Amino acid sequence: MSDTATIGFRLAAARRIMYRNGCDSAVAGHLSARAENGEGFVMTPFEYFDETLPSSVSVLDWDLRVLGSASSETSPASSFHSSIYRRRDDVGAIAHIHSHWVSVLVSTDQYIGMYNVGATLFHEEQAEYVDDGSVPSVDGERMADQLGDRSVLLMRNHGALIAADTIEHAAILAVMLEQSARYHLECTAAGGREIADAEVRRVKGQYHKYFLDQMWTANLRRLRRSDPELFESTP
C-alpha cells in the first residue's frame, strides 16, 4: 500500500474502534494524522465513524487545500488540526469527539478527576477551551495556544480534542477519555474519593507504557470479526 493508503486504513480502523467504544459523534467529529512527507495531514470526512474506509480520507496541506481528488467533504474545523501540527512536532495524530459523557462533562467547569486508574492517562494533561462567541468558532490558533504542551483540550459545551504521537494512541486515549468522563461524573455524584497523587503518577507511566498498545491490538482483533468489510477493502 502507499503511505496515504496505509494511513487511511489506520484512520478507518481507529474511527471504528472509537465508535464501538462509545465515541460516536454522528457525522461530526474527526480524526487526522500527520502526512508521511510532513507537508500536511490526512483527515477523515463527514460520515459516521463506523462507515469510514481507507478511501474516505483526504490529504490536506497546511493551508487546508485538498491535495488530489477527495471522495468526501472534510470539516471546516480542520483548521485546528493544521495549527496544532505546525506548533507541535511531537503530535502525529489528533482526534476530535463529541461523545456522550465527554459532552456532559464539558457542560460543567470540571476537569476529569483521578477516580479510576484509566483516568491517570490524563493527569496534568487537560486544558480548557471556551468559545464565548466573540471570536471565530473553533479558532485554530487560539486552540493551539490553549492546548500548549498537553494532550487533551476540553471544549466547553462542545466536545474534546486529543493530541497524541500516533493514530493508535489517539484512538485509545479518546476511548479512555470518554470512559473517564463517565467515571468522573458518576463518582462525584456518589461522593467517591480520588486516587492518591503518588499512585496516580506511578500508574500513569505504566498505562502509557503498556496499556495503550495492548488496547489497540485487542480492539483490532475484535474489529476483524465485527467489521470484515474494512479488511476486505484493503489491498
Structure description:
There is one protein chain. This protein is 43% helix and 14% strand. It has 235 residues and is α+β, with helices and mostly antiparallel strands. Strand 7 and strand 8 (159-164) form a beta hairpin.
Class derived from helix and strand content: alpha+beta
- Number of strand segments: 8
Helix share, percent: 40-55%
Rg? 17 Å
Shape designation:
globular
Which secondary structure elements does this structure contain, and how are they paired or packed?
Blueprint (H helix, E strand, L loop, with lengths): L2 H18 L9 E5 L6 E3 L14 E3 L5 E2 L11 H9 L5 E5 L2 H6 L20 E4 L10 H8 L4 E4 L3 E6 L2 H24 L6 H30 L1 H5 L3
Parallel strand pairs: 6-7
Antiparallel strand pairs: 1-2, 1-5, 2-3, 3-4, 5-8, 7-8
